[in-house]
Amino acid sequence: MFTLVLFALFFAVPLVWLVLATTKNGEQLYFGAPLSFRSVNHLVRNWGSSRKHDAPVRPQPTSRDQIARAKDWYCRWPVHWFSRLAVKLAAYLAVEVR
Fold first, then answer.
1. Rounded distance, CA 46 to CA 51, Å?
2. With a threshold of 0.90, does the pTM exceed it?
């Protein structure tokens, strides 16, 4: 039971801090208490600022060369991934056989 409580605290406290950090300005982040709640106004302003700066995960290519490289990467990544998997499995099986 004690281990479960430690596990929960270990993962919950940083998540709580992430939520509470959005309620503070820069000076309060550096010099204030880490798990204190400051202002709803800062929370609303920071949330709006983060939503305004959202960018796509992968920007769209702009030139023909970039489009060709993107297509090449999308076509080749499975080959690289599966070849690395095959090498790892072969090494694992070689060690297990001995």
1. 9
2. no
